[in-house]
Amino acid sequence: MEIRxxxxxxxxxxxxxxxxxxxxxxxxxxxxSRAIARLERRLAVTLLERTSRRVTLTxxxxxxxxxxxxxxxxxxxxxxxxxxAAHSRSRLVLAVKSGTAxxxxxxxxxxxxxxPNAATVDLLLCEAHQQQELLRNGQADVALLHLPxxxxxxxxxxxxxxEGQVAILPASHRLxxxxxxxxxxxxxxxxLPMARWPDHGGSYPEGPGPEVRNLTQLxxxxxxxxxxxxxxxxxxxxxxxxxxxxPVLDAPPVTTVIAWPSQSRLRAVxxxxxxxxxx
Length: 279
Prior knowledge:
It is flat, with a radius of gyration of 23 Å. Helix 1 (about 5-15) crosses helix 2 and helix 1 packs across helix 4. The protein contains 9 helices and 10 strands. By secondary structure, the protein is an alpha+beta fold. Belongs to the LysR transcriptional regulatory family.
C-alpha cells in the first residue's frame, strides 16, 4: 500500500462522501474513486459500501481506518523528528493536561531552566487523553501522564510522584465541610451526578452526569451544582471560593509519570527526564 492511497482512504472513510473527501484532499473526484477501487483490488476486500445515497464502512474498512491513522501518524512523527534532529533544535514541547500537576510542573520547569544548555520548553496544554496522541505523532516531545487514567502503551516512562484523590463539591453542599469522604458517598449523590470524561477513543461512558473535557469546564459545572468529580489532589488546589475539595479515603492513588516516545533520541528530552527524576 502507498501512503498516498492511505491518505485518500482515510479522507473518504472519515467524510463518508467522495465529493467532500476530494474537496478536502484538493483533488478531483474521479482519480480519488479510482485510487480507492485500486486499493480494494490490491487487498482483495471491500472497504466501502457505496450506494447512490450513502457511503458506509465495511468491517474490513473500519480495521484499515484504524491502522491507516496509526501509520499516517507514525509517518508524520518520523518526518518531524528527522527535521528536529537535522536542525539540532533547541526547543522542547511538553504536553500537559490543562489544570493538572501545577506545583510539580513549576518545580520541574524551574529546575530544568537552571541546567547548562537547557532547551526552551514550550508548554502544550491539552484535554483528556490528548497527550498520548501528541507524543505519538511528534507534536510533543515529552508529556506528564496520570495513571491509571492515561495509557502509556508504546511509551517510555519514569515515575515522578504518587498522590491521593479529592472530591470537588460546591462549597455550599452539605458534605463540603467534611474532613474526609468515601467514594460510595460521592457516587450516591443524585443531585450531583458524576461528570463523564471521554475514553481514549473519544467516546463517553453512559450515565446521567454531564460530558466534560477539561477542568475549567468541569469546575464551572460543579460551582453551578450540576455535577461532582473525584480527581488527583494536586488538581484540586487553588480552587475558587465556591468550590471545596474533600479527601476521598478509599479512592485509588494516582501516579504522575513523565513519558516520551521510545524512539526519541533528543538530548534535550534526556536532560529533562534526568531533572524530573531527580526532583
